[in-house]
Design brief:
There is one protein chain. By secondary structure, the chain is an alpha+beta fold. The chain has two domains: 2-94, no CATH class; 102-254, DNA integrity scanning protein, DisA, N-terminal domain (YojJ-like (1), CATH 3.40.1700. Helix content is 58%, strand content 14%. It contains ten helices and seven strands. The protein has helices spanning 2-33, 39-57, 61-81, 83-91, 102-121, 137-142, 152-159, 198-209, 238-254, 258-276, and strands at residues 126-130, 144-149, 169-173, 176-182, 213-217, 224-228, 231-236. The chain has a seven-stranded mixed β-sheet with strand order 2-4-3-1-5-6-7, sandwiched between helices. The longest helix is centred in the first third of the chain and has 32 residues, at 2-33. The chain is elongated and about 70 Å long.
């Protein structure tokens, strides 16, 4: 009797567990690619997959064979097209933040904000990459090792004109500056305006190759820009920069637990249902 109950329990809960795991995996994968340059390709890939499943369900053998062939080619092509994104995704599976506790996160954010404020006011060009899950060892080794505490004064000193290490970018991890005068990879995208300078192209390239947030300060105008996931946001205010840092580093840290994920999904579902309900008179 007990053995029968155990078998029945496994029979019902095994598919439920599989569906739950797959749902979470798909949700995070789509959330990761949403807003990137490859998002339209992801949608096309999903459409192809849905079409293939329909052909299997309706027993359309010819279409099934054709879609299976194209699906295999698409999966292979995706490994090449999404190489930078997949590298960030695999590195992010550990869900490691570059800050420790929530208090340390906020303190380190203020260090970056103060440093950028000073650099912008003085119109000192700067390129700052904040490391997250993807290790930037190759980029760190391309520069000059420093390994010192990250302070506004130190960051400003590094980028001060005529300083021997002011060219290139710096890498910040947790509350320390790992290296200066680093060479960032330039983006290979052809759709970027020709007015975008080398410093900004390097920032975009770094954000394409890793999950780091890159901050740029223009030496001509003092304008502040950011690059994240291959997207460049130009001429932003300090308030917006603080919001960007909080959204990337603080919010995920506070909401990373599974209960918070479930809560956010329920809240989103309630909002959707409330929109579909007719207004009461």
């Amino acid at each position: 009797m007990e053995q029968t109950l155990d078998n029945n329990w496994l029979q019902y809960w095994r598919p439920i567990a599989e569906i739950g795991i797959l749902s979470v995996a798909i949700y995070y994968t789509l959330d990761f690619f949403r807003g990137t340059r490859g998002w339209p390709i992801v949608l096309a890939f999903l459409g192809l997959l849905i079409g293939l499943l329909l052909c299997i369900g309706l027993n359309l053998k010819v279409l099934e064979s054709l879609l299976s062939y194209f699906f295999g080619l698409s999966a292979f092509a995706a490994l090449i097209i999404f190489q930078p994104e997949l590298r960030r995704l695999l590195a992010g599976l550990g869900n490691l933040t570059f800050f420790g506790s929530l208090l340390e996160q906020r303190e380190n954010i203020e260090v970056v904000i103060q440093a950028v404020d000073r650099l912008s006011d003085s119109k000192i060009g700067a390129l700052i990459a904040i490391e997250q899950s993807t290790h930037l060892q190759d980029v760190v080794e391309s520069g000059i090792p420093i390994d010192c505490e990250a302070t506004p004064e130190m960051i400003e000193t590094i980028f001060f004109p005529n300083n021997a290490i002011h060219d290139g970018g710096i890498i910040i991890k947790e509350d320390r500056i790992l290296s200066a005068a680093c060479i960032f990879p330039l983006t290979r995208r052809q759709d970027i305006s020709k007015t975008i300078g080398t410093r900004h192209r390097a920032a975009i390239g770094m954000s394409e190759e890793s999950d780091s947030l890159v901050i740029i300060v223009s030496e001509e105008t003092g304008a502040i820009s950011t690059a994240h996931k291959g997207k460049l946001s130009q001429v932003i205010t300090l308030k917006k920069l603080r919001g960007t840092l909080n959204s990337i580093f603080v919010t995920p840290f506070r909401n990373r637990s599974f209960p918070n994920l479930v809560k956010s999904l329920i809240t989103r579902n309630k909002k959707t249902n409330s929109k579909t309900k007719p207004a009461s008179i």
